[in-house]
Specification:
Blueprint (H helix, E strand, L loop, with lengths): L1 H22 L2 E6 L12 H8 L4 E6 L9 H6 L5 E6 L2 E7 L10 E4 L1 H6 L3 H15 L4 E2 L4 E4 L6 E9 L4 E9 L4 H4 L6 E8 L5 E6 L3 H17 L6 E5 L3 H10 L7 E5 L3 H15 L3 E3 L3 H6 L3 E4 L18 E4 L19 E4 L2 H7 L3 H5 L8 E4 H5 L13 E4 L4 H18 L3 E3 L4
Parallel strand pairs: 5-11, 12-13, 12-15, 13-14, 15-16, 16-19, 17-18, 17-19
Antiparallel strand pairs: 1-2, 3-4, 5-20, 6-8, 7-8, 8-9, 9-10, 10-11
Helix pairs in contact: 5-7, 5-14, 7-8, 7-14
């Protein structure tokens, strides 16, 4: 019997090698991500894991589509299913590791320069869309963020934590800001960010990455997602109230989803405004018209982006023309405000999270002024992306997207960066657990 089984196993191995040689396909170990929860065609224990909603598996895949993972990489990723990896005409590796405790987990370290090379804006937009859909599909757990305000002249540090059930990854982002003396006193930036990724099945940390770029990227992408879903199809002109780094991110992201014919920009700081004009025109070739007032910029807008610190003059309701889509970014905590609450009275209101936006977003102000009630909030944006609620229903509607930012956006974006790092062999593995 044993001899017979060995002969059968050898025959199957030879057929697999022959198929690889003839067709260029082979079973490999890789990570699956599937929001919808549909099972993949998989084999062995890996297939059974996938059918139970796991995110690991082995399947027939083209070498051009998936990266071949060696034993060291599979171990670092905790891929301890029955996986076989075949190269053209030869066996590369085989994993049949049942006891996870016998393996030493390795953690991937990604520095800022590496992170910047590992993702493009189009991928971030896709990650943020996935995040919004997941949030409204009972796939996310994210507790309230924790903020610690340190004694002056220091600033604050915030922690955002999120668990995404579909990819079994927990993310934690620590971001600091307002440490104005850091560059001279400590030789580090005034604001920093760090993201930790944990394997939710074991609790082990699988990645430590610089997070200073991710907040800006995913916030910019959130505006683009809202433009795709809510702006008029014939929208051409953007008004940017605020011309700092986030205003640039919004333009970079929105430029991926529509053709921008012109940008009307306003800032209280003329030097910042002038540099914004120079940078955007050089990078994208889009003409930037410098507005002499906030009102002048807003009146031209098909799409209005507000990215200020939320401390200045408000965008008044009568400045905004019918059909405008507003991307409200700057108000992410109490004490900030960019829009006249009257704007909300007759607008279609869409938020990223009702809980967050009614507590600390732009939407809090009209609620607090009794201009609207919670029932007047049309939808969370994930509901629109999933088709559960309507988006724009006429070219005359004013739509407002109130974005406060969510941990799940960090999760999906950071996970995509992590995947790209593994695929491209970027970063440094270190032994965190012994």
């Amino acid at each position: 019997m044993i001899t017979f089984l060995l002969i059968v196993a050898a025959g199957i191995g030879m057929l697999g090698t022959l198929a690889a040689a003839l067709f260029g396909y082979f079973p490999i170990c890789h990570i699956y991500r599937d929001l919808g929860g549909e099972p993949y065609q998989t084999t062995g224990e890996a297939g059974r894991q996938s059918d139970r909603g796991g995110d690991r598996g082995c399947s027939m895949a083209s070498p051009a589509q998936h990266v071949l993972l060696d034993v060291r990489t599979c171990a670092s990723l905790n891929l301890f299913e029955e996986c076989q990896a075949f190269g053209r005409g030869h066996m590369a590796y085989a994993l049949n590791l049942k006891d996870r405790e016998t393996m030493q987990m390795k953690t991937l370290l990604l520095k800022k320069g590496e992170v910047s090379r590992l993702i493009c804006m189009k991928e971030v937009i896709g990650a943020v869309e996935e995040a919004y859909k997941a949030f409204n599909s009972d796939q996310v757990e994210q507790p309230d963020y924790i903020g610690i305000h340190l004694p002056s002249p220091r600033g604050e540090i915030d922690f955002k934590l999120g668990y995404y059930k579909a990819n079994e990854v927990i993310s934690m982002k620590a971001s600091s800001g307002g440490f104005i003396y850091n560059p001279t006193a400590h030789g580090v930036p005034s604001g920093m960010g760090t993201i930790l990724l944990f394997d939710a099945r074991s609790g082990a940390v699988i990645c430590v990455m610089d997070g200073s770029l991710i907040t800006g990227l995913r916030t910019g992408a959130s505006g683009a997602v809202s433009v795709k879903a809510l702006a008029r199809k014939n929208a051409k002109k953007i008004a940017s109230v605020g011309t700092g780094n986030q205003a640039r991110m919004q333009i970079r992201a929105i430029n991926e989803v529509m053709k921008i014919e012109g940008i009307h920009a306003w800032s209280r700081t003329l030097d910042t405004l002038s540099k914004f004009k120079t940078d955007i025109e050089r990078e994208f070739g889009i003409p930037v018209i410098v507005a002499s007032s906030k009102k002048e910029a807003v009146e031209q807008a098909d799409i209005l982006i507000t990215t200020t610190r939320g401390k200045g003059e408000l965008v008044e309701a009568h400045w905004v023309k019918p059909g405008t889509h507003i991307v409200a970014i700057g108000t992410d905590q109490r004490g900030k405000q960019e829009l006249d609450p009257e704007l909300f009275r007759n607008a279609k209101i869409i938020v990223d999270s009702i809980t967050q936006c009614t507590e600390k977003g732009e939407t809090w102000h009209p609620l607090n002024s009794n201009i609207i009630t919670k029932d007047d909030i049309h939808a969370e944006i994930g509901e629109i992306l999933l088709g559960r609620k309507a988006g724009r229903e006429s070219d005359e509607e004013i739509t407002i997207f109130d974005s406060t930012g969510m941990a799940i956006q960090d999760n999906t974006t950071a996970t995509k960066i992590y995947q790209n790092a593994i695929d491209n062999n970027v970063g440094t593995f270190f032994q965190f657990l012994e």
